[in-house]
Specification:
Elements: H1 6-12, H2 39-46, H3 61-74, E1 78-82, H4 85-96, E2 102-106, H5 111-123, E3 127-131, H6 136-140, E4 147-153, H7 165-174, E5 179-182, E6 200-204, E7 218-222, H8 260-273, H9 279-312, E8 316-320, H10 330-336, E9 344-349, H11 357-367, E10 372-373, E11 383-385, H12 397-402, E12 410-413, H13 419-431
Helix pairs in contact: 1-3, 1-9, 3-9, 4-5, 4-8, 11-13
The chain binds pyridoxal-5'-phosphate.
Length: 432
């Protein structure tokens, strides 16, 4: 059955009952390698004349169901899954850029991505220039003939700033380079960035898509819309020594051309650096997809209620939630987010009782009992963290400021427990 309804795709996308066992659920193929039908079949698979399974580092049937489902949920042409969101970001950079190239990225990124862009990629010869995600023109100002892509998070971690994706896509496309977006904080039942012109979408599946804090994983989704036949993306136009000298923009069979990015991602960094997702974890993420839309409704509803509670609380100095009219993200959030404003709330406690705002914030986290103090988001369980001393602690004070991170900021990932219990826990932690 074909459906364009995301709730139906989330449950059925990419999967039919197994024709041999008749199992209705997804099978997990625990094998490293797949038998070739003949010598010709083997060489056709390696030459991309046919697509099929070779060796599980390159793909497996369970992960393929997940990839098909994610591509359909995001409205893309193909997806590739990886062992973490971090490897998905890194391999995206290596699929598009090499030593001597440049990237323009938002400064308000998840701390791990920020460090990768500030230290690791420059060590590999790729220069990253940082821009202000709230000012699309600041990206345009930094594009040179060496820029290979623009990179933003759809909802910045941790400040919850939301860049205008269609404005950034316009700038990227004027320069014939792709716009890459990490949409981890806005899973596809909330936002589909390809509809606003994003060319590549990245997810840390470890967050809301998996949804239960049960497994690590990442994914890229290729929109299939970017025109790779242009000199601003040389890795797609020159013979690729990594894969039989193929020119990805020119030599693929017509039906595979819309998957050029996904194919280079799979056959170059994934094949040669190896951070593949295990089929067991793909199975966990498939189960996560099936209830994503239901969980997100509760995450959105609970997070909005928490934000309202904090806003009225006398001990709180400020609260950010993209759903508040007047929040700096509200204009973009109300344009881009179709079904709620997400499960994250960030806030600062007032200084007082002889303590600084940061000291009181840390004490508040220790006082929580239903909330878990962990460095994660997107779990069914409510979570709290203090990013300045954990996820973003490798950033300098100035970089923390640029990323929208005041030292007292507390980040809450609101779970799907009963709202009364969530509020009661916050209330007692603020009182103690
Ligand atoms: C927005 C964002 N992107 C990427 C990542 C990295 O994903 P993973 O932890 O799955 O490697 C994270 C992790 O917190 C994140 O918040």
């Amino acid at each position: 059955m074909k459906s364009n309804k995301i709730e139906t795709i989330a449950v059925h996308g990419g999967q039919k009952p197994d024709p041999v066992s008749k199992a209705r659920g997804m099978s997990v193929c625990r094998t490293t390698a797949y038998v070739f039908d003949s010598a010709e079949h083997a060489s056709n698979l390696f030459a991309l004349k046919e697509l099929g399974f070779i060796y599980s580092r390159l793909g497996d049937p369970t992960s393929q169901i997940l990839e098909t489902r994610l591509a359909q949920m995001e409205g893309g042409s193909a997806a590739v899954v990886t062992s973490s969101g971090t490897s998905a970001v890194h391999y995206t950079a290596l699929t598009l850029a090499r030593a001597g190239d440049e990237i323009v990225a938002a400064s308000n990124l998840y701390g791990g991505t920020h460090t990768m862009f500030k230290i690791l990629l420059p060590d590999q010869g790729i220069t990253v220039k940082f821009a202000d995600s709230n000012r699309p023109d600041s990206f345009r100002d930094q594009i040179t003939s060496k820029t290979r892509f623009l990179f933003v998070e759809t909802m910045g971690n941790p400040a919850l700033d939301m860049p205008d994706i269609s404005a950034l896509a316009k700038i990227a496309h004027e320069h014939h380079i792709p716009l890459v977006v990490d949409s981890t904080f806005t899973p596809p039942t909330l936002y589909r960035p390809i509809e606003d012109g994003a060319d590549i979408v990245i997810h840390s599946l470890s967050k809301w898509i998996g949804g239960h804090g049960a497994a690590m994983g990442g994914a890229i989704i290729d929109s299939g819309k970017f025109d790779w036949k242009n000199s601003n993306v040389p890795l797609f136009n020159e013979p690729d020594g990594n894969y039989h000298g193929i020119r990805w923009a020119h030599d693929l069979p017509t039906e595979l051309a819309p998957q050029a990015f996904a194919l280079r991602f799979r056959t170059v960094p994934l094949r040669n650096l190896g951070a593949c997702l295990s089929p067991d974890n793909s199975w966990i993420f498939l189960i996560g997809c099936e209830t994503l839309h239901l969980r997100m409704e509760r995450h959105n509803e609970n997070a909005f209620a928490v934000a309202r509670f904090l806003k009225k609380h006398p001990e709180i100095s400020w609260v950010r939630y993209p759903g508040f009219e007047g929040d700096p993200s509200y204009t973009v959030a109300s344009k881009q987010l179709k079904k709620g404003f997400g499960g994250m709330v960030v806030f600062g406690i007032k200084a007082g009782k002889g303590k600084s705002a940061t000291e009181r914030g840390r004490k508040f986290i220790e006082n929580l009992s239903l909330f878990s103090h962990v460095t994660n988001v997107g779990d069914t369980k409510s979570l709290a963290t203090h990013p300045a001393s954990t996820t973003h602690s490798q950033l300098t004070e100035e970089e923390q400021k640029a990323t929208g991170l005041p030292p007292e900021l507390i980040r809450l990932s609101i779970g799907i427990e009963h709202i009364d219990d969530i509020i009661a826990d916050l209330e007692q932690a603020l009182a103690n």
